[in-house]
Fold this sequence. Notes:
The chain is mostly beta strands.
Amino acid sequence: AEITRQNTILLFIKSTDTLSLSAGDSVAIRAGDRVVVGSESAGQIILADGSAVDLYEGTALTVAALAREADTDGAVRLELLSGRIFSRVQRLLGTRTFDVGTPSSTASVRGTRFGVSVLSGESSYYYTAEGSVGVSMDGAEAVVDAGEELTAVQGDELVVTGIEDLIPPSLTISSPAGSVATGSTVTVTGLTEPDAIVYVNGFMVTVDEDGAFSVEVIVEETGILVDAIDAFGNMSSVQIPAQ
């Protein structure tokens, strides 16, 4: 697996070594490594099977287990110490598992899109945008399906509720002109809601405080796909055809 950085300060800690990545840089990660995202920063962990985990400002996590690409019975486990992540997990084969642990509880998936936030040492928040997520805490278990959320608080019952906000975020593309990608590279510029996450061809792009974003990308044969996802997993998409 590898990690890439968008924006300012992301620290990759391996044993006693500490690396600070510059925007666009990537580095291989292994079980036992720790990743810390600094102020006004974001990063992304990309696994060999195409699964991706987006890391937001103030996030710290440890890679507790990391299965190899060829393993059908291995495990991926991330220990989220603080902050917020959004995971897009490919459908797992065999008995492979993908877990996200927090100080209070654990999420287990087989293939889905979901978000996890650490609220405190005793509570965590989960929501599911696609598929299902199993949440366990102190021997209790609950399933969070698409469009549902759960705040897991130690000592309290696990109660799953529907997400009230089901309205997709606004998303407009101002460049490339005519919403057609010409040439080998283009600059994609657009506007969405300030709290939304933007992906261009699957890679996370930084959004400023007004919701604006701009990134230069390679034009693929299938064109360019821009997705915006809000804090509740609602998504808007724009497909820019190649010419």
